[in-house]
Structure formats: C-alpha cells, structure tokens
Amino acid sequence: MNDFLTANYHAHTVRCQHAYGTEREYIEAAIAMGIREFGFSDHIPCPFSDGYVSGIRMTMAQAPSYVETIRRLGEEYKQDIRIYVGFEAEYIPEFYEKQMRMMRELGCDYLILGQHFLESEQTGPYTGSPTDDESRIRAYVDTVIEGMRTGSYLYLAHPDLMNYCGMDSVYDWEMTRLCKAMKEMDIPLEINMLGMATGRNYPSEHFWRIAGELGNRVILGLDAHCVEHVTDKDSYGKCMALVDKFNLDLINRIDI
Ligand SMILES: [Zn+2]
Ligand SMILES: [Zn+2]
C-alpha cells in the first residue's frame, strides 16, 4: 500500500492570483512523491459581460498560455508522469456554453465541479461562508445536480464546501439528496486535502458519514495552491483516517 496518493486531478497555478510556485516545481514534487498522474485544474475563467475582472481566477485571454505551458511540461516530463490540463469550474448557466467552447478550442482534458458560488462571483456569496439559510443549501444541491447532469465533469470537488450551520435534519436531507444523485450518475466525490490542511469547514465528518452510508465513490484531491501541498503527508494521513472511519469507497484514479 502506498503512503501517498498516486493520482491527483486538483491543482492551481499562479494565474488564479492565490496560488504560488511554478508548474515545474509542482510536477517535480509530484514525481518525487511517487504520483503517476497529475492534473492541473486552475479556476476556470468566466466571460463576464460587463468587463469585470476577477481577483480569484485567470482571464479568458490567459487560458491559451495556461494550457500551452502545461502541455509543454507534460511533454517534457512524459517519461516520469502523466500530466493533464483542465479546470475547476462552478456550474453557472450564463457562462457554461462559452466556457465549454473555450475548453474544446483549447483541447483541455477535463473539468471538475467546485461550486464556490451559486451564481456569478459578482452576485453570489461564497458557498463556504456560514449560513443557516435553508434556501442556500437547497440551491447548492440543486445547482450541483443540474451541473452534473451535463455530463461535463470528472468529479465533484469538496462537495462539503457548503457551510450550512442550521438544523442537522436539513443538512441530512439535502446532502442525502446530493449523495444519492451523485451515486446514480456514478460521480466520485472528493475529500479535499487543502481543507484538511487549513482547518476549513470541509472535510465535514457530518457529510462523509452520509456518503459512507450511501456508498458513494470517493477520491482524494490535493487542491494544491503551492508546492508544499503536493507533499502534504500529514493531511493525506488525516484524510485516510476519515476514509477508514466512515468506511468510504475510495478509488485511486479516474480514466480521462
Ligand atoms: Zn475549490
Ligand atoms: Zn481548487
């Protein structure tokens, strides 16, 4: 048995303005850790209609050089590791078609769904902000299910990002609905190692108990924002303890 993950599809680059280090450093660290498949999934750019420029993602104009940089490194390191390029995307209907066209034009490998906002970041509050508003957790689950029905996403990143702090019965009901829908569509759920490392509201034991009971497939994701996250054995151990505790159906890789 390995003492670290062997495939990771969740990593960011400096283009999102809150990640550090070079792609080459990430790749070399991954190789040193015995990782055999490594996917970059930086925050997807959004085609804002009013000229708004996000402080947490690249612009549409930066996307070609992002893909090109990673393709070049993938070629350079192909003897040692398989490199993929994709994006972590919210499902936002007003942006979806344009983003999918960009994906096709750039020849990206995959998308993961990370619903950080329910609508554009310009209007919606961050999903990880605490709330006891039932309508928000309901909207989160509805949006994720609707997005996944497109068939465009490899897995659901940090499904437990939604920070609902109201009644347990509401959380149980909504997250059961989410997990059942993901199971029907055979979509793996990600245990997020960055959340573990930084003490965020996720991974949530409450959530993973539900996923364990329903038998969802589960995968670990580094969500690397710096090279140290690529070698974080401590968070790996804590996430594996969660897998054991809730008897989660862990998978090690996904075909892309
Ligand atoms: Zn995320
Ligand atoms: Zn991420």
Short description:
It is built from 9 helices and 7 strands, in the order E-H-E-H-E-H-E-H-H-E-H-H-E-H-H-E. The chain is α/β, with parallel strands linked by helices. Strand 1 (7-8), helix 1 (23-32) and strand 2 form a beta-alpha-beta unit.
Distinct ligand kinds: zinc ion
Q: Which architecture name does CATH use?
A: Alpha-Beta Barrel
What percentage of residues falls in helices of 4 or more residues?
Answer: 40-55%
Span of the ends, CA to CA: 23 Å
Q: Sum up the overall morphology in one term.
A: globular
Description:
This protein has helices at residues 23-32, 63-76, 93-106, 134-148, 168-184, 193-198, 205-214, 227-230, 233-245, and strands spanning 7-8, 37-43, 82-89, 110-113, 189-192, 217-221, 249-250. With 256 residues, the chain is an alpha/beta fold. Helix 3 links the parallel strand 3 (82-89) and strand 4 (110-113). The chain has one domain (7-250): Metal-dependent hydrolases (TIM Barrel, Alpha-Beta Barrel), CATH 3.20.20.140. The mean pLDDT is 96. The protein is built from nine helices and seven strands. The strands form two sheets. A four-stranded parallel sheet has the order 1-2-3-4. The protein has a three-stranded parallel sheet with strand order 5-6-7. Bound molecules: zinc ion (2 copies).
Q: What key attributes describe this structure?
A:
256 residues, alpha/beta, TIM Barrel, 4-stranded parallel sheet, 3-stranded parallel sheet, 40% helix, globular, binds zinc ion
